[in-house]
Amino acid sequence: MKPLTLIVTLFAALALSACGTKKGFEKPGFAFGCPIGDQRISSMSDLVKAKTVREGGKSPDVEVEEVRCTTTGELLKIDVGVYNDESDVERLMYKFRWIDAEGMRAAEEESWKPLLMYGNSRQIVTTVAPNPKARDFRFIIMGQD
Amino acid sequence: MQANLTLRLLSVAALAGCIVLSGCAKPKTRYGDAGAVETVTNQFGSTDLQMLAEQMSQSMLSEAPVISSGNLPIVTIQEVKNKTSEYIDTRTITNRMRATLQKSRRVRFAADEADMKKQISELQRQQSEYYKQEQSAQIGQMVGAGFRLSGEISSIVKETKDVKDVYYQLFLSLTNVQTGIEEWSDTKDIRKTTQR
Q: How many domains does chain B have?
């Protein structure tokens, strides 16, 4: 192999390995910025399934599409994308349940918040953790009627 | 004459029956979910109070730079004016916000105007001859707030024969006491419609 070819190959290999490390920019134990602990989350739908809880008898006919997290100061900030794929208006309630690093309740149970979703519409529900102890959360939804 | 007497007896029996039945139908009291969505009427209710206080606290924690910087600012709460047509104890909104913000450990609260009388009274009480002076709280050591939280709640009510629509808006702002600069403000809205 010529020295020039060797150098080019070496550079290409280095560049590729650099790209490879950049791909893993997410901290271990996090997916899409959200804390996941040691759960195996390989897609957004896995994350949505892990973070969403449907309570009550009549589950609202909406789809939780995505959950994304970041931090503001030391507080967890969350965006949850909800989609009403039906043509009818859907009325639901939601709240967040906050969990600390030990898996205990990090704050008092929130009150239910009503949410009206027009037919075929999307909404982003945004919240901020009530205190720095809240390291994990569950998005809880329930039908209003 | 006989028919009249029978009618009277029947009336008395029916009345007694009603009294007995109404006495048996006891009102049922049960505990409910304090955080449930309440839609009994479209007047300002518990869900509105809880929702406004929670959303405003979240907004302050994430959007007010003086709070999100983690410098533990000292805040005093001023009156939130009620400009709606109904009675709303706005202090219940700010009390709930205060509790949430205090638990966040990002804000401290100084005695506000409403608490000042109690605070002075306690300070003066500790100056009396009944207390060990070396352990008593000293006058002139209170810390003033760097920021004041104030605002107003207003409403627009529209009503026809069949529909009543109420729109509430809560406006709050956080102002630097020394400079007068407004460091944060936000509005939260609620719409409630009742159809007969």
A: 1
Per DSSP (E only), the strands in A73-131 are 75-84, 90-99, 113-117, 121-128
Does residue A18 lie within any of the structural domains?
no
What CATH number does the domain containing B152 carry?
3.40.50.10610
Range of the domain at A68: 25-143
Contact B46, B118 (CB under 8 A): no
Question: Containing domain of residue B48, as a range?
Answer: 42-129+136-195
Q: Which pLDDT score is estimated for A48?
A: 95
pLDDT (0 to 100) of residue A22: 40
Chain B environment of A130 (Cβ under 8 Å): 57-58, 61, 100, 103-104
Q: Read out DSSP for B135-180?
A: GSPPTT-----SEEEEEEEEEEEEE-SSEEEEEEEEEEEEEETTT-
Domain assignment present for residue B185? The answer is: yes
Query: With an 8 Å Cβ cutoff, is A112 touching chain B?
Result: yes
Checking ipTM against 0.85, whether it exceeds it is no
Is B26 inside a domain boundary?
no
Overall domain count for chain A: 1
Residue A71: closest C-alpha in chain B: B62
Residue A1 forms part of a structural domain = no
**For residue B68, which residues of chain A lie inside 8 Å, CB to CB?**
72-73, 75
DSSP labels for B100-136? HHHHTTS-EE---HHHHHHHHHHHHHHTSTTS-GGGS
Give the pLDDT of residue B196: 87
Is residue A109 within 8 angstroms of chain B, CB to CB? yes
What value does the mean pLDDT take over residues B145-174? 96
> Which CATH number characterizes residue A136's domain?
2.60.40.3230
